[in-house]
Amino acid sequence: MTTQDLIEEIHKKKTFLCIGLDVDLTKIPQHLLELEDPIFEFNKAIIDTTHDLCVSYKPNTAFYEAYGIKGWQSLQKTIIYINQNYPEIFTIADAKRGDIGNTSSMYAKAFLEDLNFDSVTVAPYMGKDSVEPFLAFENKHTILLALTSNEGAFDFQTQQVGAKELYKVVIETSKTWKNSQNLMYVVGATKADYFAEIRKIIPNSFLLVPGVGAQGGSLQEVCQYGLNANVGLLINSSRGIIYASNGSDFAQKAREEALKMQQEMAQILANCYCLINVTVLISVFDSILMK
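Predicted structure:
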């Protein structure tokens, strides 16, 4: 999927919601455990009831790898189901990979070619040659960990490296890598006050933003500082949507929570359009007065 495809889908659905498919067998409805593949059946129900309210799904691979080969098969079935039934959806393998070049090439092949995800999250700590193998895939995206939402982010990411914080050095350096136009970035919603600084470095890039909802991040604050002309945000919500209920109504309750976020996002987009139109009108009037 191209970036333009994603932008068009955002405007069509009036949402920039990404739903995290982080399936924990101890939290899903008990009746699903009687089925042959409870993880896939849970995902399928969530997807079928929310696909029109979001533009992206993000399975965190740890929640599948924890169940061995069966979990991996559930992940494979899930991505195949999305690609076949809802090909307009932008898919993210939240795998946080990153290793020496040859190994990264295999990781990239696994997620972007074999499983056919649109994107994969990657850790930048090992530098250029660990990330560029992911960037080599046409119309695929590498989502670089830049400033994460966890408490430990302050251990390294905000430390000074010379005159700049490390996360700024990472983002600025990544722009010099081959095929850097295929980069997106993870920026946690709990770091909303950093968005303005990040937008100075990457004004046009998409940001994947976890941490809204259960982790305490504010959607309004993120949008205030993070929105760009193409929206440029994918706001992820996992637990707050998929675990809205652990009863037989779990899929419907998930839809209700997703709808709340979609409606809030639609209003934010509408307000942005109004602001853009006012700015255009002011520019037109100024040009007329100048004559």
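Summary: The radius of gyration is 20 Å.
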